[in-house]
Amino acid sequence: MRLAPSLLSADFGALGEAVTAAEQAGADAFHLDVMDGHFVPNISFGPAVVRAVRTRTRRPLDVHLMISEPARYLDEFREAGADTLVVHFEATTEHRRLLSRIRELGAEAGLALRPDTPVERAESLLGELDQLMVMGVRPGFSGQAFLPEALPKLQWVRTRLDEMGSAADLSIDGGVNAATGAQAAAAGATFFVCGNSVFGRGSVGENLGALRRAIDAGAADAVR
Ligand code: DX5
Ligand code: ZN
Question: Given a cut of 70, is residue 182 above it in pLDDT?
Fold first, then answer.
């Protein structure tokens, strides 16, 4: 089970300190939400911020591209230090070309699906993926409530990946807290993006610890 704090919920005025605090508290990776004000209504940050975070940590950077025309920017985000490039299913018609380009660049290839996109539509692409990201909220903002329809989607993908013998990460992004993280773990998720539940109230260390305990307990339920 890997936990990836989402920097969208961190204090942008002290981003470096937030990265260090989360790393010391045991973050396995960092999730960076790139939003262009077009594919989603919000605007966040671009490659310069990815590059700045890269100087602060050696943990993998999971870059979630909520942008139109992702193909135009893959090289730039890879050069900035992304380890995984996650493109949106809805942002392109050329899924295979994009995913293979990401791997050509030496990064891991991820695909995210909006809550209104049936996950079955990605079935034929599962073999091309290092990560499939199920969204627990509508992309655009942190701090939204988890949509429970993500859980059967995780179960469906878990079954397909297991049948294929795939070691791809199954990630859940949006609305993950101790309770929903445990449910997602029981449904087969292996990678947990956590924004508000890490950088919101309380200390980053305690928050990450509580999330990890709940998620590990949820994962143990899945095995039973
Ligand atoms: C939503 C983003 C998420 C967001 C998660 O568009 O993709 O990564 O930062 O934040 P929380 O965990 O607060 O829902
Ligand atoms: Zn995200």
Answer: yes
The pLDDT tens digits for 20-68 are 999 999 999 999 999 999 999 999 999 999 999 999 999 999 999 999 9
The answer to whether 191 and 2 have CB atoms below 8 angstroms apart is yes
Q: 112-124 burial by CB neighbour count: b if 16+ within 10 A, else e? A: bbbbebebeebee
Give me the pLDDT at residue 221, please. Answer: 87
Where residue 171 sits, what CATH number does that domain have?
A: 3.20.20.70
Amino acid identity at 129: L
Do the Cβ atoms of 171 and 131 come closer than 8 Å? Answer: yes
Band of the pLDDT at 224, cuts 50, 70, 90? low
Which residues span the domain enclosing 82? 2-223
pTM of the model: 0.98
> Is 33 near ligand 1, meaning CB less than 6 Å away?
yes
Which residue, judged by its Cα, is nearest atom 12 of ligand 1?
Answer: 195
- DSSP strand pairing (108-113 vs 2-5): unpaired
What is the position in ligand 1's atom list of the atom closest to the CA of 144?
A: 14
**Which residue is it, tokens 């807290």?**
177
Domains identified in the chain, total number: 1
- Beta bridge partners of residue 5, listed in sequence order: 194
CA of 222 to the centre of ligand 2 (A): 24
Q: Is 11 a catalytic residue?
A: no
| pLDDT, tens digit (0-9, with 9 covering 90-100), for 82-110 | 999 999 999 999 999 999 999 999 999 99
